[in-house]
Design brief:
The structure holds two protein chains of two kinds.
Chain A (H helix, E strand, L loop, with lengths): L11 E7 L4 H7 L10 E8 L5 E8 L5 H10 L4 E6 L2 E6 L6 E3 L20 E6 L4 E4 L5 E3 L6
Antiparallel strand pairs in A: 1-3, 1-4, 2-3, 4-5, 6-7, 7-8, 8-9
Chain B lengths: L12 H16 L2 H4 L7 E6 L4 H13 L3 E6 L11 H10 L3 E6 L4 H7 L5 E6 L5 H15 L6 E5 L6 H10 L5 E5 L8 H7 L3 E3 L9 E4 L10 H11 L3 H5 L6 E3 L20 H6 L1 H12 L7
Parallel strand pairs in B: 1-2, 1-3, 3-4, 5-6, 5-8, 6-7, 8-9
The complex binds zinc ion.
The site of zinc ion has 8 residues of chain A, from loops.
Chain lengths: ~150, ~300
């Protein structure tokens, strides 16, 4: 067992197996970079057996809503979500990409009407689950998960 | 639910056929007959960037149907004064029975359609869609041959950035046609479209003898970093009298216009030249679109 240098959490959520470099985006997409008062740790480039490297996010006393779980699946479909109670995993949540993704990620196309200050939120249709590919319902362009900006 | 015409991607073959048959009905009507159909109706045109031909052809189409038009031009619009497009267009569309919107921003027409109760027609949204152009192209082909299935259709020129040819190719995917792409290496059709519609023939030479339809588009100078290369390519793909004469009997040459030298004026008098009629077909096609979206059946 490698020393992870970050202690286990007692209660909360561990988001594991995030593609390396995407951990910060997961925090951003969950809007935890500001206004989240509990302990939050981000581990980057952790050695893993499943992926070569991975990021991990641990949030103390945090339970993810269904919408939050869905939003994580958009940028890190390979991630797993573990619910921790009393230092133990009580539940593992499987990610499932919804058919539509609304208001979670911005459209990367600068000419898209959703990026022009109009009162309209980015809306994507999921056209492919693996690898994740989304189609903007407004500008109709398709994007791979890695092209999406948070 | 009200009908809109936002994207070719939204249409099934039967939807396309409905628009085309309405256009054909509209063209066959006498002027007197047509001018009674939409008396008292108003079409609003909201053009946030200029496109005189598209606007005029909608204007003509509505007036031929006996209706009238109101026009919001970008330079005098409240959009300039800082009101957003969503609000402005909802207000203007609300003055009318049907609305056309053109915008430099992709997705504008869909947003506008969501904010108003009247049918919305996309008159072009940036690099995305221009579905009335695609329908008038299809109408021109169908009018000429009586059918679209079974034809061999070549697309020539800037196939990489040309929105017109992308939409046309996607629309033709609903039909059983052979598509041949002819373009310089620098401006080939994007791979995702080629794969999606399963085009087998891609040429970098002007092979046009066996085509039923040759659809030419502009080759734009900006696309070539090397100006000498541009001149060479342009010369290689230019359509002059001699080359067009090689096309088989009964075939047609189309172009969305305006042209900038890719078809020589000497071609205009050849039997293949169909680009001016194509442009004129914009009026009956748009009449058909208006009638279809307003749910007007002239026989009813
Ligand atoms: Zn978009």
């Amino acid at each position: 067992m490698p020393d992870l240098k970050v202690s286990k959490i007692s209660n909360g959520t561990v988001i594991d197996h995030i593609p390396p470099g995407r951990g910060l985006d997961v925090i951003k997409i969950l809007r935890m970079e500001r206004g989240f008062d509990n302990t939050l740790s981000l581990l980057m480039n952790v050695e893993s057996s499943r992926l070569e490297k991975k990021d991990i996010v641990k949030a103390e006393d945090k339970e993810l809503t269904k919408e939050e779980v869905d939003s994580v699946s958009v940028i890190a479909p390979s991630a797993t979500i573990n619910i921790i109670e009393d230092y133990g995993v009580v539940e593992k949540k499987r990610l499932r990409l919804p058919d539509k993704v609304e208001g979670v990620v911005d459209c990367p196309n600068p000419h898209c009407v959703t990026n022009t200050g109009e009162p309209v939120e980015a809306l994507f249709e999921v056209v492919n689950q693996n690898p994740v590919e989304l189609k903007c319902s407004y500008c109709e362009r398709k994007f791979k998960a890695l092209e999406l900006e948070i | 639910m009200k009908g809109n015409l936002i994207s070719i991607d939204d249409l099934e073959r039967s939807d396309i056929e409905d628009f085309l048959s309405k256009a054909s009905q509209a063209e066959k009507m006498s002027k007197a007959e047509a001018s009674k159909i939409l008396r008292g109706h108003i079409l609003s045109t909201i053009f946030l960037e200029p496109s005189t031909r598209t606007r005029l052809s909608f204007d003509a189409a509505m007036k031929r149907l006996g209706g009238s038009t109101i026009d919001l031009a970008a330079e005098v619009s409240s959009v300039e004064k800082g009101e957003n497009i969503a609000d402005t267009s909802a207000v203007v569309a609300g003055y009318s029975d049907i609305c056309v919107i053109r915008s430099p921003y992709e997705g504008t027409a869909r947003m506008v359609a969501e904010n108003t109760d009247v049918p919305v027609i996309n008159g072009g949204d940036g690099a995305n869609q221009h579905p009335t152009q695609t329908l008038l192209d299809l109408y021109t082909i169908k009018k000429e041959f009586g059918h679209i299935d079974g034809l061999k259709i070549g697309m020539l020129g800037d196939l990489k950035y040309g929105r017109t040819v992308h939409s046309l190719a996607e629309a033709l995917d609903h039909y059983d046609v052979d598509i041949r792409l002819i373009s310089p290496e620098e401006t080939k059709m994007p791979e995702h479209i080629v794969e999606k519609i399963g085009i087998e023939e891609e040429k970098t030479e002007l092979e046009i003898e066996d085509l039923d339809v040759l659809y030419a588009t502009r080759i734009q100078k900006e696309r070539f970093p090397d100006k000498q290369e541009y001149e060479r390519v342009k010369g290689e793909f230019i359509l002059n009298k001699q080359r067009v004469k090689e096309m088989k009997k009964g075939s047609i040459l189309m172009h969305p216009l305006p042209r900038v030298g890719e078809i020589k004026p000497e071609v205009d008098k050849l039997p293949q030249a169909r680009y001016f009629e194509q442009s004129c077909n914009g009026v009956p096609t748009r009449m058909g679109i208006i009638l279809e979206l307003l749910g007007v059946d002239k026989d009813a």
